[in-house]
Design brief:
Layout lengths: L5 H17 L21 H23 L4 H13 L11 H13 L35 H14 L3 H26 L3 H9 L2 H6 L7 H16 L3 H12 L5 H15 L5 H19 L7 H9 L6 H7 L4 H24 L5 H11 L8 H11 L2 H14 L7
Length: 402
Amino acid sequence: MRAAAAVPAGVATLALVAAACSLAWQTDSPLVPRYGGNVEGSAPWFLVLLVAAFAAYLVGLAALRSAPASARATIVLAVAIQLVPVAAPLLISTDAWSYWSYGWIGSSGGGNPYSEPPQEFAENPALPWMGSAWLDTTSVYGPAFTAVSEPLALVAGGSEDVAAWTYKSLAAIAAITAALLAGRLSGRKAFAIAFVGWNPVLAIHAAGGGHNDAWVGALILAALALSASRRLQAAGVMWVLAIALKWVPILLLALRAVEARDSGRRTGHRGFASAAVVVAATATVLYGVSWPLAIFPLAGNAALETSYAIPHRLEQLGIPGDLAIGFALAAFLGGFAWLLREAGHGRARLGLAGCLALVTTPYLAVWYLAWAVPLAAADDDSVAIAACLVLCVYLLPQAIPV
């Protein structure tokens, strides 16, 4: 395929994403998660347009793989595709309003989001908007994210729209940052930028849904980029911040540590340790000793099964639930042991590790791709890239009301 086809394919992706997002402005659109996420109706045309956008995205990637297009054009299209969903209302998920709710508890409610669930605060303006399933759940997010959520809740005040667009905008910025950093780290700059930045699934759930997984992806890529430029202490700080948003980066850091030991690559131990102390001390001042307990509701969520999770699919085939979870756990442990071996040979395959986590978790959400996809692009790992594309196709319909 000729490289000249890449830019038109990117433009087509942009137009189709914009068309899909415009459907959310229809009166009572089921794409907008009202009533605690309990919205009735279907949006088949949204799914059709998103599938078409992903097909155009694949055409663009194929063209870029054969011959790179202009880096400037690739970047412009990546920025446009990731920003377009910001213009839509909050799409599909209520998570951004849950972030608002937990931030409000700490900033205005006089409570502790790690020990007091949202339903205990009747005056919380986010209650009618956040997901009804999480009203009785304390925060599962890391203390850095919760601390940032508090001033954002003050900015939002009592406005669900301001809260939604704040998180949507920040997620879009994070996705664009991850795309640019992936391009910097990869040997195929234009392809890596497009792989992340032109991805319509990421755009819909980052700038569209405002998910903080985009923040995690950007911080991990920032850590890798800083390490590559020998700013090791700053890289250590980025790793701490990523872990203090969500706990998943711990697994990736373990692979990097094994890789560093084998290759002799220097690491930013002082930056990591200093940042860890500051984050832990600040979190303890703000939230007492409750914040480490966030791992327990998180583990409780992981025990739940989403319909797209592979263990759930195994159960649909007739395999007993405990056995399906056991298969997934064994697959994760075996796969991670192999990844540790690869890291011990000097190659931490973080993109593949991200895919492994998604394939084996009982609680699988499409927006988790926001950290797996950038890692695969940055690694320039053909196996991880293929795995991410398969996961994108598989998860594309998830959460879309049809």
